[in-house]
Design goal:
Blueprint (H helix, E strand, L loop, with lengths): L1 H15 L10 E4 L2 E4 L5 H9 L6
Antiparallel strand pairs: 1-2
Length: about 55
C-alpha cells in the first residue's frame, strides 16, 4: 500500500513541475567519437540495450 502512495506522489510532483523538466540525451562512444543514442537506428538501439556496463 505504501508503494502505491509513493508512486502517486511521484507522478503528482512530475505533473506539477512538467514545465521545468528537460529532455536528457544519452551519449555513447562509437568508433572513437560520441553520438546520442536517440540518433541510432532500431538495430543499434537494441545492441545498446544489451551492452554490459562495468566499472574499473
Amino acid at each position: 500500500m505504501q508503494t502505491n502512495t509513493k508512486q502517486i506522489e511521484t507522478q503528482t510532483l512530475l505533473q506539477l513541475h512538467e514545465e521545468k523538466r528537460t529532455k536528457c540525451l544519452v551519449y555513447t562512444r562509437v568508433m572513437g567519437y560520441h553520438r546520442p543514442v536517440e540518433s541510432f537506428n532500431i538495430g543499434k538501439k537494441g545492441e545498446h540495450k544489451q551492452r554490459t556496463h562495468f566499472n574499473e
